[in-house]
Write a structure and sequence with these properties.
This protein is α+β, with helices and mostly antiparallel strands. It contains 1 helix and 5 strands. Keywords: Cell projection, Cilium, Flagellum.
Amino acid sequence: MIRLTRMDGSEIYLNPDLMEIIEETPDTHIALTNGNRYLVLEPVAVILDRIVTFKASIQRRSSGGMKKKYLLRQRKENYRPICPL
């Protein structure tokens, strides 16, 4: 999700995968694939930069180079999965 600013100053977070059209007239209009339209303060160049940064962070996380502490099992003997059945 990328953070954008509406015309009234409130922040919204949009999924860049749902963006269909970004138009920059004096104001920036974003049309999503679900039919919603948003009017934001950021110019198109800033929005595209945020999309590229967001996609790069996803790629970096999925490459496996980053090891998260919470993903590693600390002790095998303490691992007891709970089965609700």
